[in-house]
Predict the structure.
Amino acid sequence: MAENEFLIPPLRPGASIAVIAPAGPPKPGRLDPVEGWLRERGYEPHLLPSCFGPPPLDFLAAPDIVRLADVHMAFGDPQFDAVLALRGGSGCIRLMDGIDLGLLAHTRKLLIGYSDLTVLHALRTQAGIPSLHAPMPASDWGLPGAEADTGALFECLARGWRVGDVVGQAVPHALSHGGRARGQLIGGNLAMFCALLGTPYLPDVEGTLLFIEDISEEPYRVDRMLSQLRLAGVLDRIAGLLVGSFSGAESPDAVLADHLPQLRCPVLAGWPSGHGQPNRPLPLGVRAEMDVAAATLTLV
């Protein structure tokens, strides 16, 4: 691949974006501004039916059949250039065995979102198609302190991602160790990634860079999930571990300090992505090089 070739092409002004709610419902007042926000950035928004309910359970945006139909419409209809998740929450994993994997594997439309969307990112990763772990409108946009994260997302969409681009830089962190590692960047929310263990939807972890983050998980639960990854052999097979933020609960730093030094692969902690702020866009499904000394991630 040439040095200047796009791994993720720019999303040009006028591009049509399908907004879907494959997981939880928006909180009151969080849906109304979405179309305006996208139009302000030069895009043409299309909010699909799942965004409007009705929620069959209080943690689902709409019935499974509606959310599944929207996933298929968003990726299958050629009028849409990208797919944006309204928010995370819970519910994506309920759709996994109903998703047309062939459809998702035959379109390179960019999927944008994080949190519960981790399981949908996994499907894209399995198909060798990049996706974007990034802020979502009903979760982040317009919130105090999130302006820089939202701005970074739209800058990245306008610019695209090329081989050789430096994705970002971690803050200095005591848990970082090792040298450099290369591999396909996979993962996302730790709880959702662990939920894929034992299913056909877990990406091949061999030689990958695994990114993890989470929210509202107490230290004992983080310990359980890292132990699960260890016992499943995942942590022995990855080439490197990229650690984002763990927010919304007691800090799991003591648990991380117990687990991470035992890893034989390099670890880069303090990465500015996750449920906290900052939450900078992070491309998944692409090959990258992690440089612990420089605290950087570069697309290769």
Notes: The CA atoms of residues 119 and 184 lie 16 Å apart.
